[in-house]
């Protein structure tokens, strides 16, 4: 039996596959080292349940204890130096040869030199650097290794350095000898033996114990609420070391990975269900799903890299980037939901999960709340400032509760929070890149597009001034209606400005651009005239694509007439040819019909504004009736069946239109003429 899948089922499988890929990537990003599930610090209360030892383990000494014991043991340590006895003969021979060359005939000088050289070189001359090192290490003696490998100790104060040896020779030397540079014949013959010294040091330390007792299986360690003392901390740290050692087996490592998979899969499944059930507009577009999953992967990956491969603190990672960027393109709830899921995933990587979750959920809420509509770059800087202040305040409050002492607060975290907040300013660059890559549109872009002084808008106003004024009026109507029903008013405003841009191509065919005279459409047949009018939609799409307008704006252009008819020409044909069946397709716009609240509002505003210009009189009754008829006809024709707009929304939109049109066409006072006397 051949399994046949529908397009929707294939779509669901594809989306589920994307989420599954994210799960695999996140599990791969988890740090390789195993984490101890308890977090503890000296002086803080134990916030977990009663803990008892589940196995025997030794109590490991801390670093300070080990360092102190090493220091005590190594007090008797003496470094080893090799004594080279051949240096004495070489240097003595060189000096005697020099004396003979200069005609020194006295036997007293060679005898004196021989006596001094023999005494000094038999003790040993050490380099000045080694001598200073011995003094800084406070070594009282060294071990001298003779050529026959016999070792004997020498007091450091008796060892010669070049300066001390020179003074020893010169002090009692004959006057004639003082004219010679004795330093030229004083060479080091006591050299540090690193290998023997290291072996001796290791032998002294090998019997030092790294533990100070044992904890038996079942022994009580600490209970909830008890303060972690230095002794308890040492025991808990020993438990942590032994627990991590026991997790190095293949079986236990596999269990850890299985746990990570289950946890990550559960959280990502919640995100999948949220988008599938509550955000179908995001779910239906594959690039939107990929965009959100990529952002999550980016933040998790950056955190994993910081923890695993750098010495930086993970609080420097700009976690608020995710809710900020998602909020700019979608909505607050989706931004916060995705942020919380990401924070919960990352909490298994960090050392203080509770504090991390508390801080990150707070700054996620602040990010979403402070960036309702990002229409200016300064708003991002303000949001970063609010996030920094929230970080600092929540961190200090948390430390007050857990420490109870202001002197124990680590103020370095404030620097980390500041750097993280500064990195948020790069969101502006990322927003631009994501717009181009994923074909998204942000509020900043919409604000730029509403600039009527742009080149495209200026061309529009010059070539089709009547249509341009119509678009401005439609934009005002649609914006107010969108605000009333909580739709995206900025998107509606922008879409309305461009919805009739196709009329730029042949502005003379549209009555709002005709300055009296004969209408050129009256000279051709109804079907051809209808096609000319309908073509302004395709012309608008073509112009929009050449001008690189976002797809969201092009959607307004293509759907603002939906699948309605050019009723003027359609009815005119029927009246002129009552016995002929009209070609329905020739008088019908190709669509599509509106598929969201914003495009539905534009369709209503466009029809109402255009119809309002042809009213014979502007009274409250005529305006109300006109608005009701135009919108009710659109509903009856099924133009809004794909748009998520309610009857209540429609009624609110009608009330806005009625009020705005009344204000536009209200009665004005007639100015009197001057009566001639």
Can you describe this structure in just a few lines?
The chain has 677 residues and is mainly α. 59% of the residues lie in helices and 5% in strands.
Secondary-structure topology with pairs:
Elements: H1 7-29, E1 51-52, E2 57-60, H2 63-73, E3 80-83, H3 86-101, H4 108-123, H5 128-136, E4 141-145, E5 151-155, H6 162-171, E6 190-192, H7 194-205, E7 211-215, E8 220-222, H8 230-246, H9 250-278, H10 280-283, H11 286-309, H12 321-329, H13 332-346, H14 353-370, H15 377-403, H16 412-423, H17 427-438, H18 443-449, H19 455-463, H20 465-484, H21 489-498, H22 526-546, H23 551-559, H24 567-576, H25 597-612, H26 620-636, H27 647-664
Parallel strand pairs: 3-4
Antiparallel strand pairs: 1-8, 2-7, 3-6, 4-5
Give the N-terminus to C-terminus distance in angstroms: 104 Å
Radius of gyration: 44 Å
What's the rounded overall pLDDT mean? 87
Number of helices: 27
Query: Could you say what the CATH architecture of the largest domain is?
Result: Orthogonal Bundle
What would the CATH topology of the largest domain be? Hypothetical protein af1432
Q: What portion of residues belong to β-strands?
A: under 5%
**Widest sheet, order of strands:** 5-4-3-6
CATH top level class name of the largest domain: Mainly Alpha
User: What is the SS-derived class?
Assistant: mainly alpha
Q: Which sheet architecture does the biggest sheet show?
A: 4 strands, mixed
Low-confidence stretches: none
What is the tally of beta strands? 8
- Number of individual domains: 3
Roughly how much helix do the residues carry, as a percent range? 55-70%
Overall morphology = elongated
């Amino acid at each position: 039996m051949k399994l046949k899948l529908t397009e929707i089922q294939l779509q669901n499988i594809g989306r589920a596959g994307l989420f599954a890929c994210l799960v695999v990537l996140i599990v791969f990003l988890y740090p390789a080292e195993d984490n101890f599930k308890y977090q503890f610090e000296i002086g803080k209360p134990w916030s977990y349940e009663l803990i008892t030892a589940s196995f025997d383990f030794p109590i490991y000494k801390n670093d300070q204890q080990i360092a102190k014991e090493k220091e005590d043991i190594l007090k008797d340590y003496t470094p080893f130096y090799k004594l080279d006895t051949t240096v004495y003969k070489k240097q003595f021979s060189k000096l005697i040869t020099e004396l003979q060359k200069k005609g020194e005939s006295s036997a007293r000088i060679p005898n004196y030199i021989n006596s001094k050289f023999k005494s000094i070189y038999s003790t040993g001359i050490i380099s000045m650097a080694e001598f200073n090192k011995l003094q800084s290490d406070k070594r009282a003696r060294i071990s001298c290794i003779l050529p026959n490998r016999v070792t004997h100790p020498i007091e450091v104060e008796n060892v010669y350095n070049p300066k001390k040896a020179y003074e020893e020779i010169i002090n009692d030397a004959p006057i004639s000898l003082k004219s010679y540079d004795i330093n030229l014949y004083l060479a080091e013959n006591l050299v540090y033996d690193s290998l023997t010294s290291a072996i001796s040091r290791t032998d002294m330390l090998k019997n030092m114990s790294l533990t100070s007792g044992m904890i038996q299986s079942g022994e009580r360690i600490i209970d909830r609420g008890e303060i972690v003392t230095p002794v308890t901390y040492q025991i808990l740290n020993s438990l942590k070391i032994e627990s991590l050692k026991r997790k190095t087996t293949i079986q236990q490592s596999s269990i850890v990975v299985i746990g990570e998979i289950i946890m990550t899969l559960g959280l990502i499944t919640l995100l999948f269900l949220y988008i599938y059930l509550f955000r179908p507009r995001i779910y239906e577009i594959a690039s939107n799903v990929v965009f959100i999953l990529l952002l999550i992967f980016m933040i998790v990956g950056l955190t994993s890299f910081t923890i695993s491969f750098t010495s930086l603190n993970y609080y420097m990672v700009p976690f608020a980037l995710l809710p900020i960027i998602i909020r700019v393109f979608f909505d607050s709830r989706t931004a916060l939901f995705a942020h919380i899921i990401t924070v919960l995933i990352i909490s298994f990587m960090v050392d203080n999960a509770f504090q991390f979750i508390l801080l990150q959920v707070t700054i996620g809420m602040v990010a979403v709340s402070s960036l309702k509509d990002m229409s200016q770059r300064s708003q991002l800087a303000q949001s970063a400032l609010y996030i920094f202040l929230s970080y600092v305040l929540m961190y200090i409050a948390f430390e007050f509760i857990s420490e109870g002492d202001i002197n124990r607060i680590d103020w370095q975290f404030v620097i980390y929070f500041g750097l993280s907040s500064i990195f948020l300013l790069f969101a502006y660059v990322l927003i631009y890149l994501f717009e181009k890559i994923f074909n998204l549109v942000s509020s900043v872009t919409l604000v730029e597009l509403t600039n009527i002084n742009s080149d495209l808008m200026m061309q529009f106003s010059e070539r089709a001034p009547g249509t341009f004024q119509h678009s401005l009026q439609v934009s005002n109507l649609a914006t107010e209606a969108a605000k009333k029903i909580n739709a995206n008013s900025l998107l509606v405003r922008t879409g309305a400005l461009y919805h009739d841009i196709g009329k730029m191509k042949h502005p003379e065919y549209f009555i709002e651009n005709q300055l009296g005279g004969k209408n050129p459409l009256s000279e051709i047949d109804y079907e051809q005239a209808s096609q000319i009018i309908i073509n302004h939609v395709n012309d608008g799409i073509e112009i929009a694509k050449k001008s690189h307008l976002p797809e969201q704006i092009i959607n307004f252009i293509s759907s603002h007439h939906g699948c309605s008819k050019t009723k003027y020409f359609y009815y005119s044909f029927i009246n002129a040819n009552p016995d002929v069946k009209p070609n329905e397709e020739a008088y019908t716009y190709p669509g599509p019909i509106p598929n969201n609240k914003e495009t539905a509002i534009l369709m209503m505003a466009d029809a109402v504004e255009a119809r309002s210009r042809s009213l014979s009189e502007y009274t409250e009754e005529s305006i109300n009736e006109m608005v009701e008829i135009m919108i009710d006809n659109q509903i009856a024709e099924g133009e809004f069946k794909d748009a998520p707009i309610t009857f209540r929304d429609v009624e609110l939109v009608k009330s806005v239109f009625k009020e705005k049109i009344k204000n536009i066409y209200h009665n004005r006072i007639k100015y009197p003429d001057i009566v001639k006397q």
